[in-house]
Amino acid sequence: MKDETQPSRVAKANAATKSDRARSNSRLLLASGSPRRRELIGLTGWPVDIRPTRADETPQPGETGRELTRRLARLKALAVAPSDGAVVLTADTTVVDGEDLLGKPADGRAAREMLERLRGREHSVLTSIAVRAPDGTLLVDTCESSVPMRRYGDDEIGRYLAGGSPFDKAGGYGIQDGLFEPVDMRSFHDCFANVMGLPLCHVVRTLRRIGMEPGVDVPAACMAHLGYDCRVYPAILGEAA
To answer: Which site in 10, 32, 172, 193 is 20 to 30 Å from 183, CA atoms measured?
Structure first.
């Protein structure tokens, strides 16, 4: 008796052909002006166009970090006009310290206050991504990382502010900023790319839901590029460690 629960060879071949076609013809449209996100998405092997979009990032009354980032990621994705079958990718990141949401500092004073507040303590970074397929399907995923900060000095904060780096980053810092090194990397065990603003494994996981596969081993490419031994990607991607 034929087992109807198992796909036939023809069905498998058709599925493989469809997957290959999706992999080869798919193009991403990254709706972000962030240089960190452009840097990270370039590791995936997908052809990428860049079209920055803006949104009012003011939190609504009582909104949590998860609710804020998911709302803004959706809003950005819906604000981008369709482009020749491209898949739209957007992201939004915020820092959560206790019940407070820390976005990008408005000026040097705000940046200093954020950095003084965060040092020597642990907080959370949330990034939500939104993917809009050509058929209008909209998918949202969220990554949350616990970030322990080292006890940097006031003079280090001053030099960091003088360099101008804090002002386009949620929480006023970048985990990748090697001259400052704000994060205690000995105690950090979560997604490095998420804290930079684009959790690549969540991007891969979400794009797989619409039939897109990267042309490279994204976790390996990410770890090599960032110089970070990531231990969370197998759980995110459902792979054996």
So the answer is: 32
76 belongs to a structural domain: yes
Does residue 189 surpass a pLDDT of 50? yes
Q: Given the residues 84, 92, 97, 107, select the one marked as catalytic.
A: 92
pTM above 0.90, yes or no: no
Task: Indicate whether 91 belongs to any domain.
Answer: yes
Residue 102 included in any domain? yes
Give per-residue pLDDT as tens, 146-165.
999 999 999 999 999 999 99
Q: What is the pLDDT of residues 215-230, one digit of tens each?
A: 999 999 999 999 999 9
Contact yes or no for 142/69 (Cβ under 8 A): yes
Q: How many domains does the chain have?
A: 1
Position of tokens 């629960």?
5
- 237: phi then psi, degrees, rounded to nearest 5: -95, 0
- The set of residues, in sequence order, having a beta carbon less than 8 Å from that of 154 and lying 6+ positions away, is 116
